[in-house]
Amino acid sequence: MTASMGLKDMIACDTRISAIENDELSYAGYNISEFMDNNASFEEVIYLLWNLHLPTQIELNQFEEKLRAEYAISDAVEQCILIQSRKHLHPMSVLRSTVSLLGVYNIHAEENSLEVMYDQSIQIMAKVPTIIATFARLRQGLTPIAPREDLGFAANFLYMLKGEEPTELEVRAFNKALILHADHELNASTFAARVTASTLTDIYSCVTTAIGTLKGSLHGGANERVFDMLMDIRESGDTESYLRQKLDSKEKIMGFGHRVYKTVDPRQKYLKEMALALTQGTDDEEFYNLSQEVEDFIRHEKGLIPNVDFYSATVYHVLGIDSDIFTLIFAMSRMAGWIAHVQEQKKNNKLIRPRSHYAGQMELVYIPINRR
Ligand SMILES: CC(C)(COP(=O)(O)OP(=O)(O)OC[C@H]1O[C@@H](n2cnc3c(N)ncnc32)[C@H](O)[C@@H]1OP(=O)(O)O)[C@@H](O)C(=O)NCCC(=O)NCCS
After folding, report:
1. How far is the first Cα of the chain from the last one, in angstroms, to the nearest whole number?
2. Angle between helices 91-104 and 326-347 (to 10 degrees)
3. What gap in Å lies between CA 15 and CA 313, rounded to an integer?
4. Coil, strand or helix: which one is 32?
5. 297 within 8 A of 253, measured Cβ to Cβ
6. Which of 214, 215, 218 to mutate to test the pocket of ligand 1 (most atoms within 8 A of CB)?
Protein backbone atom coordinates (compact mmCIF):
# COMPACT_ATOMS: atom_id res chain seq x y z
CA MET A 1 0.00 0.00 0.00
CA THR A 2 1.50 3.38 -0.99
CA ALA A 3 0.11 6.85 -0.41
CA SER A 4 -1.25 9.13 -3.14
CA MET A 5 0.68 12.34 -2.44
CA GLY A 6 -1.77 15.14 -1.74
CA LEU A 7 -4.66 12.67 -2.33
CA LYS A 8 -4.45 13.76 -5.97
CA ASP A 9 -7.44 12.51 -8.03
CA MET A 10 -8.84 10.49 -5.10
CA ILE A 11 -12.64 10.51 -4.71
CA ALA A 12 -13.37 10.95 -1.00
CA CYS A 13 -17.15 11.48 -0.87
CA ASP A 14 -20.38 11.78 -2.83
CA THR A 15 -21.81 15.28 -3.00
CA ARG A 16 -24.76 17.02 -4.66
CA ILE A 17 -23.46 20.51 -3.87
CA SER A 18 -21.01 21.22 -6.67
CA ALA A 19 -19.12 19.52 -9.46
CA ILE A 20 -16.04 20.16 -11.58
CA GLU A 21 -16.27 18.30 -14.87
CA ASN A 22 -14.42 18.95 -18.12
CA ASP A 23 -13.04 22.18 -16.69
CA GLU A 24 -16.57 23.46 -15.94
CA LEU A 25 -17.92 24.28 -12.49
CA SER A 26 -21.56 23.80 -11.49
CA TYR A 27 -23.50 24.32 -8.28
CA ALA A 28 -26.26 21.78 -7.61
CA GLY A 29 -26.52 21.14 -11.34
CA TYR A 30 -26.37 24.76 -12.55
CA ASN A 31 -23.29 25.79 -14.52
CA ILE A 32 -21.82 28.94 -12.92
CA SER A 33 -22.41 30.74 -16.24
CA GLU A 34 -26.16 30.57 -15.45
CA PHE A 35 -25.64 32.78 -12.39
CA MET A 36 -23.24 35.12 -14.18
CA ASP A 37 -25.40 35.58 -17.28
CA ASN A 38 -28.65 36.06 -15.35
CA ASN A 39 -27.39 38.35 -12.57
CA ALA A 40 -28.28 35.91 -9.79
CA SER A 41 -27.77 37.19 -6.26
CA PHE A 42 -25.29 35.67 -3.82
CA GLU A 43 -28.21 35.05 -1.44
CA GLU A 44 -29.92 32.87 -4.08
CA VAL A 45 -26.72 30.89 -4.46
CA ILE A 46 -26.31 30.39 -0.70
CA TYR A 47 -29.91 29.15 -0.59
CA LEU A 48 -29.23 26.81 -3.52
CA LEU A 49 -26.10 25.33 -1.94
CA TRP A 50 -27.87 24.73 1.37
CA ASN A 51 -31.18 23.45 -0.04
CA LEU A 52 -30.14 22.06 -3.44
CA HIS A 53 -32.90 23.93 -5.26
CA LEU A 54 -33.29 27.56 -6.31
CA PRO A 55 -35.61 29.51 -3.99
CA THR A 56 -39.01 30.78 -5.05
CA GLN A 57 -39.52 34.52 -4.52
CA ILE A 58 -41.26 33.82 -1.18
CA GLU A 59 -38.48 31.49 -0.03
CA LEU A 60 -35.85 34.03 -1.04
CA ASN A 61 -37.63 36.87 0.77
CA GLN A 62 -37.83 34.80 3.96
CA PHE A 63 -34.21 33.72 3.65
CA GLU A 64 -32.98 37.28 3.10
CA GLU A 65 -35.08 38.52 6.00
CA LYS A 66 -33.47 35.96 8.33
CA LEU A 67 -29.97 36.78 7.11
CA ARG A 68 -30.44 40.54 7.44
CA ALA A 69 -31.86 40.16 10.96
CA GLU A 70 -28.56 38.49 11.92
CA TYR A 71 -26.16 41.02 10.32
CA ALA A 72 -25.33 42.80 13.59
CA ILE A 73 -22.63 41.58 16.01
CA SER A 74 -22.76 42.05 19.77
CA ASP A 75 -20.68 44.62 21.67
CA ALA A 76 -18.74 41.73 23.23
CA VAL A 77 -17.69 40.41 19.81
CA GLU A 78 -16.79 43.93 18.66
CA GLN A 79 -14.63 44.39 21.77
CA CYS A 80 -12.73 41.20 21.00
CA ILE A 81 -12.16 42.36 17.43
CA LEU A 82 -10.85 45.67 18.78
CA ILE A 83 -8.35 43.88 21.02
CA GLN A 84 -7.18 41.66 18.15
CA SER A 85 -6.92 44.62 15.77
CA ARG A 86 -4.13 46.05 17.93
CA LYS A 87 -2.02 42.91 17.93
CA HIS A 88 -0.49 42.69 14.44
CA LEU A 89 -2.19 39.35 13.83
CA HIS A 90 -2.81 38.11 10.32
CA PRO A 91 -6.41 39.10 9.45
CA MET A 92 -7.28 35.44 8.78
CA SER A 93 -6.23 34.61 12.34
CA VAL A 94 -8.59 37.32 13.58
CA LEU A 95 -11.44 35.90 11.51
CA ARG A 96 -10.72 32.37 12.72
CA SER A 97 -10.76 33.39 16.39
CA THR A 98 -13.80 35.64 16.04
CA VAL A 99 -15.95 33.04 14.25
CA SER A 100 -14.98 30.64 17.01
CA LEU A 101 -16.12 33.28 19.47
CA LEU A 102 -19.59 33.39 17.88
CA GLY A 103 -19.94 29.85 19.23
CA VAL A 104 -18.90 30.99 22.70
CA TYR A 105 -21.70 33.59 22.70
CA ASN A 106 -24.41 31.29 21.27
CA ILE A 107 -26.17 29.44 24.10
CA HIS A 108 -27.27 26.73 21.64
CA ALA A 109 -23.73 26.20 20.30
CA GLU A 110 -23.49 22.62 21.56
CA GLU A 111 -26.87 21.58 20.17
CA ASN A 112 -26.40 19.38 17.16
CA SER A 113 -29.81 18.98 15.52
CA LEU A 114 -30.08 19.89 11.83
CA GLU A 115 -32.71 22.57 12.65
CA VAL A 116 -30.48 24.32 15.19
CA MET A 117 -27.51 23.98 12.85
CA TYR A 118 -29.50 25.71 10.08
CA ASP A 119 -30.12 28.72 12.36
CA GLN A 120 -26.44 28.73 13.36
CA SER A 121 -25.52 28.61 9.67
CA ILE A 122 -27.58 31.74 8.96
CA GLN A 123 -26.07 33.47 11.95
CA ILE A 124 -22.46 32.71 10.93
CA MET A 125 -23.08 33.60 7.27
CA ALA A 126 -24.71 36.92 8.20
CA LYS A 127 -22.17 38.00 10.81
CA VAL A 128 -18.93 37.20 8.97
CA PRO A 129 -19.15 40.31 6.70
CA THR A 130 -19.76 42.48 9.76
CA ILE A 131 -16.79 40.92 11.55
CA ILE A 132 -14.53 41.57 8.56
CA ALA A 133 -15.69 45.16 7.97
CA THR A 134 -15.47 45.94 11.69
CA PHE A 135 -11.92 44.60 11.85
CA ALA A 136 -10.88 46.44 8.67
CA ARG A 137 -12.09 49.76 10.10
CA LEU A 138 -10.93 49.31 13.70
CA ARG A 139 -7.35 48.54 12.71
CA GLN A 140 -7.28 51.82 10.76
CA GLY A 141 -8.53 53.68 13.83
CA LEU A 142 -11.97 54.19 12.22
CA THR A 143 -15.35 53.71 13.91
CA PRO A 144 -17.16 50.55 12.76
CA ILE A 145 -20.27 51.14 10.68
CA ALA A 146 -23.45 49.32 11.69
CA PRO A 147 -24.94 47.00 9.04
CA ARG A 148 -28.00 48.12 7.09
CA GLU A 149 -30.83 45.63 6.92
CA ASP A 150 -32.23 47.34 3.83
CA LEU A 151 -29.14 46.31 1.83
CA GLY A 152 -28.34 42.95 0.30
CA PHE A 153 -25.29 40.89 1.27
CA ALA A 154 -22.83 42.38 -1.26
CA ALA A 155 -23.97 46.00 -0.95
CA ASN A 156 -24.12 45.88 2.84
CA PHE A 157 -20.55 44.62 3.11
CA LEU A 158 -19.13 47.32 0.84
CA TYR A 159 -21.18 49.93 2.72
CA MET A 160 -19.86 48.77 6.12
CA LEU A 161 -16.31 48.73 4.79
CA LYS A 162 -16.25 52.17 3.20
CA GLY A 163 -19.03 54.07 4.94
CA GLU A 164 -20.73 55.04 1.72
CA GLU A 165 -23.18 53.28 -0.52
CA PRO A 166 -21.38 51.43 -3.31
CA THR A 167 -22.25 52.05 -6.97
CA GLU A 168 -24.38 49.58 -8.89
CA LEU A 169 -21.34 48.43 -10.87
CA GLU A 170 -19.41 47.77 -7.64
CA VAL A 171 -22.28 45.78 -6.12
CA ARG A 172 -22.74 43.76 -9.29
CA ALA A 173 -19.02 42.96 -9.50
CA PHE A 174 -18.74 42.04 -5.83
CA ASN A 175 -21.88 39.92 -5.97
CA LYS A 176 -20.42 37.99 -8.90
CA ALA A 177 -17.07 37.54 -7.17
CA LEU A 178 -18.88 36.15 -4.11
CA ILE A 179 -20.82 33.68 -6.26
CA LEU A 180 -17.70 32.53 -8.11
CA HIS A 181 -15.91 31.69 -4.84
CA ALA A 182 -18.94 30.14 -3.09
CA ASP A 183 -18.09 26.47 -3.55
CA HIS A 184 -15.55 24.25 -5.25
CA GLU A 185 -16.26 20.62 -4.37
CA LEU A 186 -13.53 19.03 -2.28
CA ASN A 187 -10.90 21.80 -2.09
CA ALA A 188 -8.58 21.62 0.93
CA SER A 189 -10.62 23.80 3.31
CA THR A 190 -13.92 22.11 2.44
CA PHE A 191 -12.35 18.70 2.93
CA ALA A 192 -11.01 19.88 6.28
CA ALA A 193 -14.51 21.09 7.25
CA ARG A 194 -16.04 17.75 6.25
CA VAL A 195 -13.44 15.78 8.23
CA THR A 196 -14.26 17.91 11.29
CA ALA A 197 -18.03 17.57 10.70
CA SER A 198 -17.69 13.80 10.41
CA THR A 199 -16.73 13.58 14.08
CA LEU A 200 -20.17 15.14 14.89
CA THR A 201 -18.67 18.21 16.51
CA ASP A 202 -20.35 21.65 16.40
CA ILE A 203 -20.56 23.86 13.31
CA TYR A 204 -18.30 26.56 14.81
CA SER A 205 -15.49 24.02 15.06
CA CYS A 206 -16.10 22.96 11.45
CA VAL A 207 -15.90 26.45 9.96
CA THR A 208 -12.97 27.42 12.20
CA THR A 209 -11.06 24.43 10.81
CA ALA A 210 -11.90 25.57 7.29
CA ILE A 211 -10.77 29.16 7.87
CA GLY A 212 -7.42 27.96 9.21
CA THR A 213 -6.97 25.77 6.14
CA LEU A 214 -7.94 28.49 3.67
CA LYS A 215 -5.35 30.82 5.21
CA GLY A 216 -2.40 29.01 3.62
CA SER A 217 -0.71 30.51 0.55
CA LEU A 218 -1.28 27.41 -1.61
CA HIS A 219 -5.02 27.84 -1.08
CA GLY A 220 -6.87 31.07 -0.25
CA GLY A 221 -3.77 33.04 0.68
CA ALA A 222 -2.73 33.21 -2.99
CA ASN A 223 -4.87 36.22 -3.97
CA GLU A 224 -3.20 38.45 -1.37
CA ARG A 225 0.20 37.43 -2.73
CA VAL A 226 -0.93 38.09 -6.32
CA PHE A 227 -1.53 41.72 -5.48
CA ASP A 228 1.79 42.01 -3.66
CA MET A 229 3.43 40.62 -6.80
CA LEU A 230 1.66 43.17 -9.03
CA MET A 231 2.89 45.96 -6.75
CA ASP A 232 6.45 44.59 -6.86
CA ILE A 233 6.34 44.31 -10.66
CA ARG A 234 5.04 47.87 -10.94
CA GLU A 235 7.93 49.05 -8.79
CA SER A 236 10.52 47.00 -10.70
CA GLY A 237 9.22 48.34 -14.03
CA ASP A 238 10.22 45.13 -15.84
CA THR A 239 7.62 42.34 -15.83
CA GLU A 240 9.66 39.81 -17.78
CA SER A 241 12.88 39.92 -15.80
CA TYR A 242 10.93 39.96 -12.50
CA LEU A 243 9.03 36.79 -13.49
CA ARG A 244 12.01 35.11 -15.09
CA GLN A 245 14.02 35.53 -11.92
CA LYS A 246 11.15 33.96 -9.90
CA LEU A 247 10.89 31.03 -12.27
CA ASP A 248 14.67 30.54 -12.33
CA SER A 249 14.69 30.32 -8.55
CA LYS A 250 11.81 27.77 -8.73
CA GLU A 251 9.36 30.04 -6.97
CA LYS A 252 5.66 29.49 -7.58
CA ILE A 253 3.88 32.34 -9.34
CA MET A 254 0.81 33.06 -7.25
CA GLY A 255 -2.53 32.95 -9.04
CA PHE A 256 -1.36 30.35 -11.59
CA GLY A 257 -1.85 26.62 -11.86
CA HIS A 258 -4.55 24.42 -10.42
CA ARG A 259 -4.82 20.92 -9.04
CA VAL A 260 -7.99 20.12 -11.01
CA TYR A 261 -8.30 22.59 -13.92
CA LYS A 262 -5.76 22.00 -16.63
CA THR A 263 -6.98 24.03 -19.64
CA VAL A 264 -8.98 26.85 -18.03
CA ASP A 265 -10.32 27.90 -14.64
CA PRO A 266 -13.93 28.71 -15.62
CA ARG A 267 -14.23 31.36 -12.90
CA GLN A 268 -11.27 33.33 -14.13
CA LYS A 269 -12.83 34.75 -17.31
CA TYR A 270 -15.62 36.46 -15.33
CA LEU A 271 -13.15 37.96 -12.89
CA LYS A 272 -11.01 39.15 -15.77
CA GLU A 273 -14.06 40.79 -17.40
CA MET A 274 -14.91 42.46 -14.09
CA ALA A 275 -11.34 43.64 -13.58
CA LEU A 276 -11.47 45.27 -17.01
CA ALA A 277 -14.92 46.84 -16.47
CA LEU A 278 -13.90 48.26 -13.09
CA THR A 279 -10.50 49.61 -14.11
CA GLN A 280 -11.09 50.88 -17.66
CA GLY A 281 -10.34 54.60 -17.85
CA THR A 282 -9.29 54.80 -14.18
CA ASP A 283 -5.85 55.04 -12.50
CA ASP A 284 -6.14 51.34 -11.68
CA GLU A 285 -6.13 50.32 -15.33
CA GLU A 286 -2.38 49.69 -14.98
CA PHE A 287 -3.14 46.72 -12.68
CA TYR A 288 -5.30 45.17 -15.37
CA ASN A 289 -2.63 45.75 -18.01
CA LEU A 290 0.11 44.39 -15.75
CA SER A 291 -2.01 41.31 -15.05
CA GLN A 292 -2.47 40.72 -18.75
CA GLU A 293 1.32 40.95 -19.25
CA VAL A 294 1.93 38.45 -16.45
CA GLU A 295 -0.74 36.11 -17.83
CA ASP A 296 0.79 36.19 -21.34
CA PHE A 297 4.31 35.62 -20.07
CA ILE A 298 3.47 32.73 -17.71
CA ARG A 299 1.28 31.00 -20.29
CA HIS A 300 4.07 31.29 -22.85
CA GLU A 301 6.95 30.28 -20.54
CA LYS A 302 5.27 27.62 -18.37
CA GLY A 303 1.96 26.80 -20.06
CA LEU A 304 0.22 27.60 -16.76
CA ILE A 305 -3.32 29.00 -16.59
CA PRO A 306 -4.42 31.84 -14.33
CA ASN A 307 -6.73 30.64 -11.57
CA VAL A 308 -9.57 32.30 -9.66
CA ASP A 309 -7.14 34.24 -7.48
CA PHE A 310 -5.34 36.02 -10.26
CA TYR A 311 -7.85 38.63 -11.48
CA SER A 312 -9.83 38.66 -8.23
CA ALA A 313 -6.84 40.50 -6.74
CA THR A 314 -7.41 43.47 -9.08
CA VAL A 315 -11.20 43.34 -8.60
CA TYR A 316 -10.89 43.47 -4.81
CA HIS A 317 -8.28 46.21 -4.95
CA VAL A 318 -10.53 48.42 -7.09
CA LEU A 319 -13.40 47.81 -4.68
CA GLY A 320 -11.28 49.46 -1.98
CA ILE A 321 -10.31 46.27 -0.15
CA ASP A 322 -6.77 46.06 1.33
CA SER A 323 -4.73 43.15 -0.01
CA ASP A 324 -4.28 41.48 3.40
CA ILE A 325 -8.09 41.30 3.64
CA PHE A 326 -8.50 39.50 0.29
CA THR A 327 -8.43 36.04 1.81
CA LEU A 328 -11.13 37.06 4.29
CA ILE A 329 -13.36 37.99 1.37
CA PHE A 330 -12.70 34.55 -0.08
CA ALA A 331 -13.64 33.06 3.32
CA MET A 332 -16.83 35.15 3.46
CA SER A 333 -17.89 33.66 0.18
CA ARG A 334 -16.64 30.09 0.67
CA MET A 335 -18.45 30.05 4.03
CA ALA A 336 -21.59 29.30 1.98
CA GLY A 337 -19.95 26.19 0.54
CA TRP A 338 -18.31 25.06 3.79
CA ILE A 339 -21.64 25.21 5.60
CA ALA A 340 -23.40 23.35 2.77
CA HIS A 341 -20.80 20.57 2.99
CA VAL A 342 -20.99 20.41 6.79
CA GLN A 343 -24.78 20.06 6.53
CA GLU A 344 -24.47 17.39 3.83
CA GLN A 345 -21.84 15.47 5.80
CA LYS A 346 -24.01 15.47 8.91
CA LYS A 347 -27.12 14.33 7.01
CA ASN A 348 -25.38 11.17 5.84
CA ASN A 349 -22.41 10.81 8.14
CA LYS A 350 -19.56 8.37 8.22
CA LEU A 351 -16.44 9.20 10.23
CA ILE A 352 -13.66 10.22 7.82
CA ARG A 353 -10.65 8.26 8.95
CA PRO A 354 -8.29 7.13 6.17
CA ARG A 355 -5.17 5.04 6.68
CA SER A 356 -1.54 6.07 6.28
CA HIS A 357 1.38 4.20 4.82
CA TYR A 358 4.09 3.82 7.45
CA ALA A 359 7.45 4.69 5.91
CA GLY A 360 9.73 4.47 8.98
CA GLN A 361 11.82 1.74 10.60
CA MET A 362 10.22 -1.23 12.39
CA GLU A 363 11.06 -3.63 15.25
CA LEU A 364 13.54 -1.32 16.96
CA VAL A 365 14.71 -2.33 20.41
CA TYR A 366 14.11 0.04 23.33
CA ILE A 367 17.39 1.24 24.89
CA PRO A 368 17.15 2.71 28.41
CA ILE A 369 17.94 6.44 28.43
CA ASN A 370 21.22 6.09 30.39
CA ARG A 371 22.60 3.84 27.65
CA ARG A 372 21.57 5.92 24.57
C1 LIG B 1 -2.52 25.39 -7.12
C2 LIG B 1 -1.29 24.50 -6.96
C3 LIG B 1 -1.00 24.33 -5.46
C4 LIG B 1 -1.58 23.14 -7.60
O5 LIG B 1 -0.56 22.32 -7.24
P6 LIG B 1 -0.35 20.81 -7.72
O7 LIG B 1 -1.54 20.26 -8.36
O8 LIG B 1 0.18 20.10 -6.52
O9 LIG B 1 0.72 20.97 -8.84
P10 LIG B 1 2.27 21.09 -8.59
O11 LIG B 1 2.55 22.12 -7.54
O12 LIG B 1 2.81 19.71 -8.37
O13 LIG B 1 2.73 21.64 -10.01
C14 LIG B 1 3.02 20.84 -11.15
C15 LIG B 1 4.16 21.50 -11.91
O16 LIG B 1 3.78 22.82 -12.33
C17 LIG B 1 4.59 23.80 -11.70
N18 LIG B 1 3.72 24.86 -11.20
C19 LIG B 1 2.45 24.71 -10.78
N20 LIG B 1 1.96 25.89 -10.38
C21 LIG B 1 2.97 26.79 -10.58
C22 LIG B 1 3.04 28.16 -10.34
N23 LIG B 1 2.01 28.84 -9.86
N24 LIG B 1 4.19 28.78 -10.66
C25 LIG B 1 5.24 28.10 -11.16
N26 LIG B 1 5.21 26.77 -11.40
C27 LIG B 1 4.09 26.13 -11.10
C28 LIG B 1 5.25 23.10 -10.53
O29 LIG B 1 6.46 23.68 -10.16
C30 LIG B 1 5.40 21.69 -11.05
O31 LIG B 1 6.50 21.67 -11.92
P32 LIG B 1 7.52 20.43 -11.90
O33 LIG B 1 6.69 19.25 -12.31
O34 LIG B 1 8.57 20.83 -12.87
O35 LIG B 1 8.01 20.32 -10.49
C36 LIG B 1 -0.06 25.12 -7.66
O37 LIG B 1 -0.36 25.33 -9.01
C38 LIG B 1 0.37 26.42 -6.99
O39 LIG B 1 1.12 26.39 -6.01
N40 LIG B 1 -0.09 27.60 -7.50
C41 LIG B 1 0.24 28.86 -6.90
C42 LIG B 1 -0.66 29.12 -5.70
C43 LIG B 1 -2.07 29.46 -6.11
O44 LIG B 1 -2.32 30.26 -7.00
N45 LIG B 1 -3.03 28.85 -5.39
C46 LIG B 1 -4.44 29.09 -5.61
C47 LIG B 1 -5.09 27.88 -6.20
S48 LIG B 1 -6.77 28.23 -6.67
Report:
1. 33
2. 40
3. 30
4. helix
5. no
6. 218
Which atom of ligand 1 lies at the shortest distance from residue 6's CA? 8
Q: Are 272 and 311 in contact (CB under 8 A)?
A: yes
| Residues 153, 202: Cα–Cα separation, whole Å | 25
CB 171 within 8 A of CB 63: no
DSSP secondary structure, 149-179, as one string: TTS-HHHHHHHHHHSSPPPHHHHHHHHHHHH
d(CA 85, CA 221): 19
Beta carbons within 8 Å of 333's beta carbon, 6+ residues apart: 42, 177, 178, 179, 180, 181, 182
Cα 370 to averaged position of ligand 1 atoms, centre (Å): 48
Q: At what angle do helices 222-236 and 326-347 cross, to 10 degrees?
A: 160
pLDDT bucket at 1, cuts 50 / 70 / 90: low
DSSP assignment letter at 280: T
- Quick: pLDDT tens for 203-249: 999 999 999 999 988 888 888 899 999 999 999 999 999 999 999 99
Which residue's CA is the nearest one to ligand 1's atom 46?
219
Report the predicted TM-score, pTM, of the whole model to 2 decimal places: 0.93
Backbone angles phi, psi at 31, to 5 degrees: -60, 140
- Residue among 267, 266, 279, 268 nearest 314 (CA): 279
Residue 258 annotated to the active site: yes
Quote the CA–CA distance of 329 and 223 in Å, as a whole number: 10
Phi, psi of 256 (to 5 degrees): -125, 150
Q: Which distant-in-sequence residues (6+ apart) come within 8 Å of 111 by Cβ?
A: none
- Output the CA torsion 151→154→158→161 (10° steps): 90
Catalytic residue among 181, 183, 184, 258: 258
The alpha carbon of 251 and the centre of ligand 1 are apart by a number of angstroms equal to 10
CB 105 within 8 A of CB 49: no
Distance from the Cα of residue 324 to its chain's centroid: 13
The sheet with strand 24-27 has its strands ordered as: 18-21, 24-27, 30-31
Q: What is the pLDDT of residues 152-180, one digit of tens each?
A: 999 999 999 999 999 999 999 999 999 99
